[in-house]
């Protein structure tokens, strides 16, 4: 992961685990520390979250991280919601599973026609996580959130814009540039005012996120030992339709 100044009072934080930018606890802690360090300084007023490679973030690689401590992972994820600076995510490619949750932890999302959003947990025989219980209904509404979580279907850029999963569309070549320009428009406002307004709009969010993640983690731990989850992970790795048994 890298952090660099990319405009007046704007910093770009880039995930560098191409092609899919799978995360783990270490990466989320590193990302949260970058947010906190930028907030502790005086020059940064807004952050652009970008990625290197084909996809924005494919969440946790369950095949490679079968023993991942989910509670520890979500402890790191909560730090992202606690950071005080506004974040604009530039979603190139897919934001899948926890990667969708990561995109929704940002204040705004820029996407392209080729972007894909998917809360695909049910397709793995698993419970959703990363506080999507809170963030997904907030941006798309309760019914659409139920649609996306029950089916685990992929949503393209145009549909994502229409339903509120992303806020702005850009071309592939101009995605980061436009996200950075938008972050610049935020940083041109009074920094104390922006942080105060953001804190007001997000009042109670961190506590809601904590409670949601605690519940999500408990449900994930229950389903993690099921045959359906094992089948979902296998099917995903083999790029085939899962054959769930309900056990």
What is the global morphology?
globular
How far apart the termini lie comes to 39 Å
Q: Topology as H/E string?
A: EEHEHEEHEEHHEHEHHHH
CATH 4th-level superfamily:
2-enoyl-CoA Hydratase, Chain A, domain 1
Rounded mean pLDDT is 96
Largest sheet entry: 6 strands, mixed
Query: Which regions contain 5 or more consecutive residues with pLDDT less than 50?
Result: none
Q: What share of residues is helical?
A: 40-55%
| Helix-strand makeup class | alpha/beta
Q: Could you give the count of β-strands? A: 9
Query: Can you tell me the CATH class?
Result: Alpha Beta
Report the C-alpha radius of gyration, rounded: 17 Å
CATH topology: 2-enoyl-CoA Hydratase, Chain A, domain 1
Q: What is the CATH architecture assignment?
A: Alpha-Beta Complex
Number of helices: 10
> What share of residues are in beta strands?
5-15%
Give the total of domains. Answer: 1
Q: How would you write the strand order of the largest sheet? A: 1-2-3-4-6-9
Question: TL;DR of this structure?
Answer:
By secondary structure, this protein is an alpha/beta fold. The chain has helices at residues 25-40, 70-82, 98-105, 132-140, 142-151, 157-163, 175-187, 191-201, 205-223, 227-238; strands at 2-7, 10-15, 46-51, 87-91, 94-96, 108-111, 116-118, 155-156, 168-169. The protein contains ten helices and nine strands.
How would you sum up this structure, described in words?
- A hairpin with a 2-residue loop joins strand 1 and strand 2 (10-15).
- With 247 residues, this protein is an alpha/beta fold.
- The longest helix is centred in the C-terminal third of the chain and has 19 residues, at 205-223.
- Helix content is 48%, strand content 15%.
- The strands form 2 sheets. It has a 6-stranded mixed sheet, sandwiched between helices.
- It is globular and about 55 Å long.
- It has a single domain (1-171, 190-247), classed as 2-enoyl-CoA Hydratase, Chain A, domain 1 (Alpha-Beta Complex).
- The protein contains 10 helices and 9 strands.
């Amino acid at each position: 992961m890298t952090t660099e100044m990319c405009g007046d009072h704007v910093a770009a934080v880039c995930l560098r685990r191409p092609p899919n930018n799978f995360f783990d606890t270490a990466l989320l802690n590193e990302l949260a520390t970058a947010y906190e360090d930028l907030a502790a300084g005086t020059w940064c007023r807004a952050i652009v979250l970008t990625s290197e490679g084909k996809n924005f973030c494919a969440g946790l690689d369950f095949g490679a991280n079968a023993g991942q401590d989910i509670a520890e992972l979500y402890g790191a994820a909560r730090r992202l919601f606690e950071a005080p600076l506004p974040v604009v995510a530039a979603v190139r490619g897919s934001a899948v599973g926890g990667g969708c949750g990561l995109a929704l932890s940002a204040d705004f999302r820029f996407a392209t026609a080729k972007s894909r959003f998917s809360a695909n947990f049910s397709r793995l025989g698993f419970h959703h996580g990363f506080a999507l219980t809170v963030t997904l209904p907030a941006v798309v509404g309760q019914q659409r959130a139920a649609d996306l979580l029950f089916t685990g279907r992929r949503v393209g850029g145009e549909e994502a814009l229409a339903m509120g999963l992303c806020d702005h569309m850009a071309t592939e070549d101009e995605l980061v540039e436009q996200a950075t320009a938008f972050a610049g428009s935020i940083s041109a406002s009074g920094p104390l005012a922006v942080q105060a307004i953001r804190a007001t709009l997000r009042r109670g969010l961190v506590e809601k996120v904590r409670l949601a993640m605690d519940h999500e983690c408990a449900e994930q731990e229950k389903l993690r030992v099921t045959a359906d989850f094992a089948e979902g992970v296998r099917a995903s790795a083999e790029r085939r339709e899962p054959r769930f048994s309900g056990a």
